[in-house]
Amino acid sequence: MKTNVFSQSSAENQCTKNKVVAVIGRWMPIHEGHKRFLIRLAKSDQYDKVVVMIGSCYEGGDPRYCITATEREKMLRAIFKRECVPEERFTFVPVPDVPTFEEWIQNVLEVCKKFHVTHFCTGNREDILDVLESKGETFGMEFINPEEDSDFPYHATDIRNMIIHGEYEKLEGLIPEEIKPILFRYTFKEILAASKKRGIHFIEGRQTVDMILLVKNINDGKIYVLLGKRPKDKKDFPGALALPGGGIQLFETAIHAAVRKFYDETGLQIEIIDNSLEPAIVRFKGLQENSLEQMHIVGIYGTEDEKLNGTRGGSSQCFATFVEGDLEEYKRLINPHRGLTDVKFYDIERISKKSLAYQQKDMLKKAINMLEAYPDLQKDIPKLEKHKDTFVISFVGAPGAGKSTAALGTSYMLKKKGCSVEYVDEFTKNLVYSDLLEKYIPNQSYIVAEQYKKIYDLLGKVDYIISDAGLEISALHSSGEKVIEDLAWYLTGKINQFTILIERDTQNVKFEEDGRIEDEEESKAFGERLEAYLKANGAKYVKVIGSEAAVEKALEIIEEKERKEI
């Protein structure tokens, strides 16, 4: 192999024992040119070890950054495995992108120092070699350019473009056979989504992992998930029920971080047998029956919404393992070392209605869907959708107060958290738009019945109903007919409901007349009358100003309710 103008102490390095060569690249994706060079290094008598750095390990969603480091590591492992390169001959180190070249070089040098690297290999002249030359800097090791004696004319960009443009016949011969199961099954969709600017982006901030363990207990046939509670002194989600997980250390792969944090927070040890596949092959240590299991990539989760993502930002890479066995065997291994408290297995049917920290409810929901791939478990999953104890949030207020905005906003936030929720609108507004209100408003019994039917049809089928037309309003409108008024309150009492009275934010919200029969003054008078009526009838409600405050209060009420039920 040729060396370039940056070679340092070449003669000295040639005589040094225990030579270690480091190679850095993005590997998006691996192609035959990559494979030929890496295997040549790994099988060369000149080097004792190959350190493969995986660059841009927390980038994604863009055409150039479209494959997760976790998948790239699997592809790299697959080519070494196919060529029978012993594990001790190679290692993989993810290297994150950082704001400046100086910081990046320091990270690379730290890896080189850790593994006693003697030779450094890169073909990236524009981003690395030219920059070093312009700064007059050296690594103090020999540089190797893989492209100087390569006969492979393509780059990873070419491979991605062939995928995007559908050039399969041309592409097939350029991709190592051993990585096709991963690339063709999992990675295509990421490359295509990124090309259309719809890829999944990592969120800037602390990068973490979460681990899901689902156990189907052979003794009762139920499915359980292992959870614990976050310490109460945590800034984000204090005391909340949560999956085991935590931060990824610098230069640590995501799957190893997941295994490490899972052991820290539960005491259960997972041994990775083969991570060249998806799912990876793993084994639990300490079980009487030491069978092989599978560890799946569930996905990457992150949002700019601090209420869901916490104050430290970042993204979480979620993994999941599904096993069938004696639950008592797994319980016996629980021995948390740090992090979570009260770690135990929860019946999945019970926990499906509860809140979890961050976006972990979404992670668990997806993992359960993945679990449906097992035919013998399908009969258990539908139970999650039956016999729900539906909780109703009823927004009431004067016309124009912001009830609909609050109801729709709350529904949206709950859906983002993975909750089963439906929005129920105001029946009388439908009559207004249909020019039928004048006809039916004298018939309050009809309006009460139709409004209640909208809610009744959803009871037991969803976790939450969010409505902008509480039956309390119908009761007020029916106060001249006691039988109908009593019916409205009776039906209200049959619902597990909390009422939020909204007063319009007159400083920031203009009164909207469309779809209303009242003007602004009449609306204000109605609001005062409604509040007095709720107090007189002992209604359970809270009062807020503005729709934003109403959404926050609704989410706060729901979160408190869920905490009490756990």
Task: Describe the protein's architecture and organization.
- There is one protein chain.
- This protein has helices spanning 10-15, 32-43, 69-82, 101-114, 125-135, 156-164, 168-172, 180-195, 254-266, 306-309, 327-332, 348-351, 360-371, 403-416, 427-433, 437-440, 444-456, 471-477, 482-493, 520-536, 547-565; strands at residues 20-25, 49-55, 90-95, 119-121, 142-144, 208-217, 223-229, 241-242, 245-247, 270-274, 280-284, 292-301, 316-325, 341-347, 391-397, 421-424, 464-467, 497-503, 541-545.
- The chain folds into three domains: 10-195, HUPs (Rossmann fold, 3-Layer(aba) Sandwich), CATH 3.40.50; 208-383, Nucleoside Triphosphate Pyrophosphohydrolase, CATH 3.90.79.10; 391-565, P-loop containing nucleotide triphosphate hydrolases (Rossmann fold, 3-Layer(aba) Sandwich), CATH 3.40.50.
- Strands 6, 7, 8, 9, 10, 11, 12, 13 and 14 form a nine-stranded mixed beta sheet that branches. The chain has a five-stranded parallel beta sheet with strand order 3-2-1-4-5, sandwiched between helices.
- Helix 17 packs antiparallel against helix 18 (471-477) and helix 18 (471-477) runs antiparallel to helix 19 (482-493).
- The protein is an alpha/beta fold and 566 residues long.
- A hairpin with a 7-residue loop joins strand 11 (280-284) and strand 12.
